[in-house]
Amino acid sequence: MTAPIELSHWINGERRDTGKLESLNPSDTREIVALAPNGGVAEVDEAVAAASAAFDGWANASPEVRSDVLDRAGSLLMERRETVGRLLSREEGKTLAEGIGETARAARILKYFAGEALRLHGQNLASTRPGVEIQTYRQPVGVYGLITPWNFPIAIPAWKAAPALAFGNTVVMKAASHTPATAEALVAILHEAGLPKGVLNLVIGGGRVGQAIVDHKDVAGVSFTGSQGVGAGVAACAVARQARVQLEMGGKNPLIVLDDADLDRAVAIALDGSFFATGQRCTASSRLIVQDGIHDRFVAALAEKVAALRVGHALDPQTQVGPAVSEDQRETSYRYIDIAASEGGRLVTGGERLNLEAPGWYVQPTLIADTDPAMRINTEEVFGPVASTLRVKDYEQALEVANGGEFGLSAGIITQSLKHARDFQRRAKAGMTMVNLATAGVDYHVPFGGTKASSYGQREQGFAAADFFTLTKTSYSAA
């Protein structure tokens, strides 16, 4: 086995401290991937001070300087995507193909925002008063705190940090506790690309690091991705001191399958959206809402595909579904499977404990049928390779079921009806809609976010990122 990586905080452009907190390989828990420090309030205070000191120089630098750093970092990360992707897979449990793919996506995010650094624009407007001109333009805000999750341990840190940096802000980032090595790899590459000292700081640690960032008086804005419960606390603390806040808090995403759907295509889409990436995607298709006429054939065909999925070590090229990221996450999946069965759900396939050659946090992909909308399996986020099916009589009932619940991130429909597809796009209560596509899988250059309890604040990614990471100033002038 490979020796553990010694991780450090990054504060004011320098590696600081090492530690003994173990980051284990979820595919083989005998392997320690990294040893990480356990930061707290003191490290956050130092990081915020460094970011504050670096703000004026970075904010007033030519946008070409910021663009060049992000572009170089994107190129370096793309060149090393196999090495970094392998680290990601060892630490998070995604298959190697998924780990490399996510790393490439992060590289493209960096390059996209390298371009956006040069494209910030304003407006020239006529005043109602003769001889007066009005201009609007965007300015950086200050120090941003970024609290990132483990399920996309390099893509989400990239899509939060890249726009913050591109538009002239400085950053203090908290790495997810399960995946600190992947986050540190990204930060190291950005510094190698020429990022000045103090512009991007990384503090590794548990919840106290996140709380210290949220509470810090000199942090102008907080971007958080994680659970509803934690997100609500982040919002309350940030708003109390009038800091900007942006939250992404998961989903319980519906996929409607109508009678006119192509069966093979519907099964392939559901399999992808529900089970790949071990179901650990906030956009996963966790509720499969199927019309009467196709329901039984769909469930039987999907169950066959689910049962055939190969679960195994993330680095095994034959593996299709890797392990859960942690023991707690594995147990959460099995607990919800038991709850669904106790509430009347029918276990079609899966649900058994797996004992593979290597000790890991594996979950057998599971399909549960004959559920109703009120069951907990359909109202609470499992975040594992577990999907439930709900039978409906027609499109209107399907839409009603899809729009139920507290979440509203992504929603999909599989149909050959243009009428139903267009109606769904208008009426689905979700921030993103998918027609004949999996609910999971979004591009890096367009806005990302949901409705209801899934999101709060401005959208992430794409052109929408400027709304959160810049301040619009309106300037009047007279001759």
TrEMBL record:
Active site positions, chain numbering: E248
Record key words, sorted: Oxidoreductase
Keyword Oxidoreductase among record annotations: yes
InterPro entries: Ald_DH/histidinol_DH, Ald_DH_C, Ald_DH_CS_CYS, Ald_DH_CS_GLU, Ald_DH_N, Aldehyde_DH_dom
Pfam families, per database record: Aldedh
Family annotation (SUPFAM superfamilies): ALDH-like
Family: Belongs to the aldehyde dehydrogenase family.
Protein's name according to its UniProt entry: Aldehyde dehydrogenase
